[in-house]
Design brief:
alpha/beta
């Protein structure tokens, strides 16, 4: 999803229509954004709209960051279960969960892993994958979770702009002590899907992130998955959000061809 305060794409339908107009291949959805409801007839209508417009559904975004009180963790896992049922009705192969920075407390970290395992087990019962988004994390943090969660339906959604220290989180500047491109190199082999963030692209090429370098990293990892355009809504472009999408898709297509 993308957009500024004027909410240029307020509904799932408007989002689908724009993706179709731009001849995109895949659309990613968030369970809490744009849906008028989650009943079966509406979800079937949404699924059929995507199908008839040639748009595969990449994933349904749900909650994550399994750090908190037991009550908070229960609420988050209940949300995951509910969203898994929505994903099944939509025909989405995966739900997206995010992590956060690695907890310093080992007990909290252990509980975090258990929650990811429970989410994966619930998803496996429905034939669904769980995609971990690095929001925000480091390369080491992502590798730790994959080492410890140990579920065959646990996969990685590499977000180019949501690493710890990323320019998207710090007004265009990579923070000292963080090499986000190294983080991508560490983890690209795990990725089945990429959220390609765009911030400043009215020149025709993204200026805050080095996409030629990122595409090379993905190529070296033999990545063959979906590249999703995600605009973070920064007020730094001299064009509207729809043009941002067009320019971003054009740049990715040129680099990936």
């Amino acid at each position: 999803m993308f957009g500024k305060g004027d909410n240029p794409l307020p509904t799932i339908e408007s989002f689908i229509d724009l993706a179709f107009a731009e001849r995109l291949d895949v659309i990613d959805l968030r369970s809490d954004v744009g849906f008028s409801d989650h009943d079966s007839s509406y979800l079937l209508d949404t699924k059929m709209s995507c199908l008839n417009k040639g748009l595969a559904i990449g994933y349904l975004a749900t909650t994550g960051h399994f750090v908190g009180t037991e009550g908070e963790l229960k609420t988050k896992l209940d949300t995951v279960r509910s969203d898994l049922d929505v994903a099944v009705k939509l025909g989405a192969p995966m739900v997206r969960v995010f992590c956060g920075e690695t907890p310093e407390d080992k007990g909290i970290g252990k509980r975090e892993v258990e929650c990811f395992q429970e989410a994966c087990d619930e998803a496996a019962q429905r034939g669904i994958a769980v995609g971990l988004q690095n929001h925000p994390c480091t390369g080491d943090g992502v590798l730790r979770l994959f080492d410890e969660v140990e579920r065959s339906n646990f996969t990685f959604i590499l977000d180019t702009g949501q690493w710890v220290g990323s320019p998207g989180r710090h007004a265009g500047e990579i923070q000292p002590g963080h090499d986000i491109y190294q983080y991508m190199e560490q983890t690209a082999h795990l990725a089945s899907h990429v959220r390609a963030k765009f911030y400043k692209i009215d020149s025709g090429a993204e200026e805050w992130l080095d996409y030629p370098r990122i595409v090379d990293i993905l190529g070296a990892a033999d990545f063959n998955g979906t590249l999703s355009v995600v605009f973070e809504g920064k007020d730094v472009n001299d064009c509207d959000d729809h043009e941002v999408l067009r320019l971003a898709a054009k740049q990715l297509r040129a680099l990936a061809s």
